[in-house]
Automatic annotation (TrEMBL), chain A:
Pfam families: ABC_tran (PF00005). SMART domains: AAA. Coiled coil: none annotated. PANTHER family: AMINO ACID IMPORT ATP-BINDING PROTEIN, PHOSPHONATES IMPORT ATP-BINDING PROTEIN PHNC. PROSITE patterns: ABC_TRANSPORTER_1, ABC_TRANSPORTER_2. Belongs to the ABC transporter superfamily. GO terms for molecular function: ABC-type phosphonate transporter activity; ATP binding; ATP hydrolysis activity. One of its GO terms (cellular component) is membrane. Keywords: ATP-binding, Cell membrane, Membrane, Nucleotide-binding, Translocase, Transport. This is Phosphonate transport system ATP-binding protein.
TrEMBL record, chain B:
InterPro entries: MetI-like, MetI-like_sf, PhnE/PtxC. NCBIfam families: PhnE. Residues 106-289 form the ABC transmembrane type-1 domain. It comes from Chelatococcus asaccharovorans. Keywords: Cell membrane, Membrane, Transmembrane, Transmembrane helix, Transport. Belongs to the binding-protein-dependent transport system permease family. Its main location: membrane. The keyword Zinc does not apply. This is Phosphonate transport system permease protein.
Length: 268, 306
C-alpha cells in the first residue's frame, strides 16, 4: 500500500506537485494522465526520490520513504522499478549487462566497478529477458536494438530488481503503435502475474482506459480526477486538458496510438 | 490574408535589422583582430631595424628579420654533415658517431613519455569526474578538482622538470613526474569536457535502480566517453614524446641532455643528427597512433547504429 499525503514539490516559485494525496493498494495498475507540465513526471520521481519533495510524505507499507537516506534510500529505489520514455539504457553495453545493472544496489564497490555479477544473477537476468522474448539478443549491444526492444530491455532491468512497485514514465511515447501495445501488454502481464503495483504516466487516454484499473488525472500539480476509467467523462477530460484555444473539447482519437482492431478487419 | 502578409512584413523588417546587426559585429571583429595583430607584431620586435656587421667587416642597417636571415642560413649550413656517395657508410657512421648512447637515450625518451602519459591518464581520468560540472557530487569537489588541474597544466613541464631535478636529482624520474603532472592537468581538462557532453539518461536509470555515484559514473558515463578518452590519450602520448625529447635540457633524462651538450660544445652536425632521430621517432609514433585512433573511432562507430 502506497500512501501519499500532502506531497508538494516547488521549482523556484512554480509548484510542480501541489498538495497531492492519494493511496494506492498493492497490485493496482494506475494510469496518470494530464497535459505536459501537469507534474506527472515529477510525481513519479518523487516516489523513488530521484527528486526530493519540498513537503509532505510518502509511505510504503508503513515506512516513510521520504526520510530514508544512504543505503536505505538506495534499497528503496531498487524496490521501485522505473521505466523511462527514452529507455535510458547504456547503449554501448550489451543487453545482458543492461539488465544486470538492476542488481547494482546489492553490490559492493569492487564487484560493481569490475562488472562482476554472479552466475545466479545472470540466470535471473536471462529469465527476465526470455519472459520479454529478448533472450536471443542478450549479447547484442543495447544501442543496436529497435525502440520497442530497448523498452522491453528496460522492463527486464526493472524485473531483476524484484520490485514492489513499477513506475513507468511515458513508456510508450517514443514507440510506434505495435511496439507500444507490446510494452503495455508486458506491463499489464507483470501487474497481473506478479501482483506488482504499476503507476504509469500516459498521454494517450484510450491506452489509459484500456490497460488501467484506475486513472488519476492531474492538472497544475493537483489531482483533477481519481477513479475508474468509466468515470472519465468528456467533462472531466475538458477540465484536465481544456485549453481556451482548443475550445475545451478533446478528441481521444487524435492522441491515440493504437492500431485499428485487426479482428474486425478479418471478419469484415 | 492581410494577417499573413502583415506577419511576413514584420519578419522582413526584423530580418533586415538582424542582418545589419550581424554585419556590424563582423566588421568590428575584423578591425579588432587586425589592430591586435599589428600591436602584437610591433611589441615582439617584428618591425625592428638593426645594424649588423657583414663578414666583410662592413656595417649595414636594415630590417632585423631580413638582415638576420643570412646568419640563420649560416647556422643551419654548419649542421649539414658532409656525405660522399662513395664513402656513404663511413660518413653516416661519422655523423651518428654517438649512436649507442643516442639509441639508449631515445629508448629512455620514449619510456619517459609512456610512463608520464600513464600517470596523466590515471590522474586525469579520476579527477575528470569531479571536474565535470554535470557530474561533480558537490561544488567544493568541483572547484578543488578544477583549480588543481588548472595549476598543474598552467606551469610548463620544463618548469616542473627544473623543480623536480632540484628535489629528486638529475635523471628520468624528474622528467616522468614533470611531464606526468602536466599531462594530468591537460588530460583531466579534456576528459572533463567529454564528461560534460555525455547524455545523462543512462546515469539517471542507474540512480533509479539504487546505484551509488560511482555506479552512475561506471555504467552511465564511462561507456560513453571511452572512445574520447582513448583518442585524447594517444594524442597526448605523441605530444609527450616531443616533450620528453627536450626535457633532458634541464637534466630530466632523455635525449635533451645531448642537445644541450651539442649546442654548448658547438657540435653542429651532432645537432642535426639528433634532430633527425627525433623527427623520425615523432613521425613514426604520430602515424602509428593516428592509425590506431582512427581504428578505434571507426570500431566504436559514433556514426553507426549505436
Amino acid at each position: 500500500m502506497l500512501v501519499v499525503n500532502d506531497l508538494r514539490k516547488t521549482f523556484g516559485r512554480r509548484a510542480a506537485v501541489d498538495s497531492l494525496s492519494l493511496s494506492i493498494p498493492t497490485g493496482q495498475m494506475v494510469g496518470v494522465i494530464g497535459r505536459s507540465g501537469a507534474g506527472k513526471s515529477t510525481f513519479l520521481r518523487l516516489i523513488n526520490r530521484l527528486i526530493e519533495p519540498t513537503g509532505g510524505s510518502i509511505a510504503f507499507d508503513g515506512t516513510d520513504v521520504t526520510r530514508l537516506t544512504g543505503r536505505d534510500l538506495r534499497l528503496w529505489r531498487a524496490s521501485c522499478g522505473m521505466i523511462f520514455q527514452q529507455f535510458n539504457l547504456i547503449e554501448r553495453m550489451d543487453v545482458l549487462t543492461n539488465v544486470l545493472v538492476g542488481r547494482l544496489a546489492h553490490h559492493g564497490f569492487g564487484s560493481s566497478m569490475a562488472r562482476a555479477f554472479s552466475a545466479a544473477e545472470r540466470a535471473t537476468a536471462i529469465r527476465a529477458l526470455d519472459r520479454l522474448d529478448l533472450a536471443p539478443q542478450a549479447l547484442q549491444r543495447a544501442g543496436t536494438l529497435s525502440g520497442g526492444q530497448q523498452q522491453r530491455v528496460a522492463i527486464a532491468r526493472a524485473l531483476v530488481q524484484s520490485p514492489r512497485l513499477l513506475l513507468a514514465d511515458e513508456p510508450i511515447a517514443s514507440l510506434d503503435p505495435a511496439n507500444a501495445a507490446r510494452v503495455m501488454d508486458a506491463l499489464r502481464l507483470i501487474n497481473r502475474e506478479d501482483g506488482i503495483t504499476v503507476i504509469v504516466n500516459l498521454h494517450t487516454i484510450d491506452t489509459a482506459r484500456r490497460y488501467c484499473d484506475r486513472i488519476v488525472a492531474m492538472r497544475d500539480g493537483r489531482i483533477q480526477f481519481d477513479g475508474a476509467p468509466d468515470g472519465l467523462t468528456g467533462a472531466v477530460l475538458a477540465d484536465t486538458y481544456g485549453d481556451s484555444a482548443v475550445g475545451g473539447a478533446i478528441d481521444e482519437a487524435i492522441t491515440s496510438t493504437e492500431l485499428p482492431p485487426v479482428r474486425q478487419l478479418e471478419t469484415a | 490574408m492581410t494577417d499573413i502578409s502583415l506577419a511576413a512584413q514584420h519578419f522582413e523588417i526584423a530580418f533586415a535589422a538582424t542582418r545589419t546587426r550581424q554585419r556590424r559585429t563582423q566588421a568590428l571583429a575584423v578591425v579588432a583582430f587586425a589592430l591586435a595583430a599589428l600591436a602584437a607584431a610591433q611589441f615582439s620586435g617584428f618591425f625592428d631595424v638593426n645594424e649588423m656587421s657583414l663578414p666583410s667587416g662592413e656595417r649595414v642597417a636594415g630590417w632585423k628579420l631580413l638582415i638576420g636571415l643570412p646568419r640563420l642560413g649560416d647556422y643551419l649550413a654548419k649542421t649539414v654533415p658532409i656525405l660522399h656517395w662513395r664513402t656513404l657508410g663511413a660518413d653516416l657512421g661519422e655523423w651518428f658517431w654517438r649512436w649507442p648512447t643516442w639509441a639508449r637515450l631515445l629508448g629512455e625518451t620514449i619510456l619517459i613519455a609512456y610512463m608520464a602519459t600513464l600517470i596523466g591518464v590515471v590522474g586525469g581520468f579520476l579527477l575528470s569526474f569531479l571536474a565535470a560540472r554535470n557530474l561533480a557530487p558537490n561544488r567544493i569537489a568541483y572547484h578543488v578538482a578544477r583549480r588543481f588541474l588548472e595549476v598543474v597544466r598552467t606551469v610548463p613541464d620544463l618548469v616542473w622538470a627544473l623543480i623536480f631535478v632540484f628535489s629528486f636529482g638529475v635523471g628520468p624520474l624528474a622528467g616522468v613526474l614533470a611531464i606526468g603532472l602536466h599531462t594530468t592537468g591537460s588530460l583531466g581538462k579534456l576528459y572533463a569536457e567529454a564528461n560534460e557532453n555525455v547524455d545523462l539518461r543512462a546515469a539517471e536509470a542507474i540512480r533509479a535502480v539504487g546505484g551509488t555515484w560511482f555506479d552512475e559514473i561506471r555504467y552511465g558515463v564511462v561507456p560513453q566517453v571511452i572512445p574520447n578518452v582513448i583518442s585524447y590519450t594517444l594524442l597526448r602520448f605523441e605530444i609527450n614524446v616531443r616533450s620528453s625529447s627536450v626535457i633532458g635540457y634541464v637534466g630530466a633524462g632523455g635525449l635533451g641532455q645531448e642537445i644541450r651538450t651539442a649546442i654548448s660544445m658547438q657540435e653542429y652536425t651532432d645537432l642535426s643528427a639528433l634532430f633527425v632521430i627525433i623527427l623520425v621517432t615523432v613521425v613514426v609514433i604520430d602515424s602509428a597512433s593516428e592509425k590506431l585512433r582512427h581504428r578505434i573511432i571507426g570500431l566504436t562507430g559514433k556514426g553507426g547504429l549505436g
